[in-house]
Amino acid sequence: MSSDSQREAGEGWDREQAKRLEERNRWFEGGIPFREMGSRWDSLDLKKASVPVPVTHTMDVDVNNKWVEFESLTFREMSALATALQREALSLRQQVECLRKERVEMGMEVDSLCGPWAPCGQRLEAMEAAHRRDLMELQESHAREVRELQRQRESLLQEESQATAQGGKERPVGSTV
Predict the structure, then answer these.
(1) Positive or negative, the Cα torsion across 43, 45, 51, 52?
(2) For a Cys staple, 32 with which of 27, 67, 115, 152, CB 3.0–4.6 Å?
(3) Basic and acidic residues bias: where (predicted)?
(4) Is 135 in contact with 128 (CB distance < 8 Å)?
(5) What pLDDT shows up at residue 20?
(6) Does the reported pTM lie above 0.70?
C-alpha cells in the first residue's frame, strides 16, 4: 500500500471520527433519545462492514430502560418531581407531629410500647371485664325473654285448643270455618 493511499485512509478515518463526535455532540445538545442514537450507529456500522456484525446487547435490559426513561425526562420535570416529593414529605411530617400532639393532649404516651405493663393494658382489661359483664346481662335477659315467649305461646295454644274444643261442639260436622 502506498503512502498516499495510507494517508487517504487515515484522513478518511479522521473524518469518520469527526462525524461520530459531531453526532454525539448533537445528541447531547439536542436531546436525541438514546434508542434512536443506538439504532443509527448500529445501522451505520452494518452498512460499512462487508461482513454483517451481530448486534449484541451488553447492558441489562432493565438498566437500559431506566436510562432511556431518565434521559427522556427534562430538567423541569425532574425538578418538579423533586419539589412535589419534598412537599409530600413535609406534609407527612406535619401530620405525624399533629398526631403526636393529639396523643399528648389525650394523655397517651407518645412513644410507649404496648403490652401488659403499658397503661393501655389496664384500660383494656377493664374494658374487657365490662364487656363480659354486659354480655352476661344480655344473655340472661335474652333467656328470660325466651322463657316468657314460650310461656305466652303455651298459653295461646291452650286457649286456642279450648276455643277449638268449644267451637267444635257447637258447629255441625263437616262445616268449615
Answers:
(1) negative
(2) 27
(3) 143-156, 168-177
(4) no
(5) 78
(6) no
Handedness of CA 91, 92, 97, 103 (dihedral sign): positive
C-alpha cell at 72: 427522556
Q: Is the distance from CB of 106 to CB of 99 less than 8 angstroms? A: no
Residue 120 buriedness (CB in 10 A; 0-12 / 13-18 / 19+): middle
Q: Which class for 44: exposed (0-12), middle (13-18), buried (19 or more C-beta within 10 A)?
A: middle
What does pLDDT average to in each consecutive run of 10 residues of the chain (177 residues)? 55 74 70 52 51 53 78 78 88 90 72 63 86 95 96 96 81 54
Transcribe the chain into DSSP letters.
--HHHHHHHHHHHHHHHHHHHHHHHHHHHHT--HHHHHHHHHHHHHHH-SSPPPP---S-HHHHHHHHHHHHS-HHHHHHHHHHHHHHHHHHHHHHHHHHHHHHHTT--TTPPPSTTSHHHHHHHHHHHHHHHHHHHHHHHHHHHHHHHHHHHHHHHHHHHHHHHHHHHHSPTT---
Sign of torsion, CA 112 114 115 117? positive
CA distance 137 to 151: 21
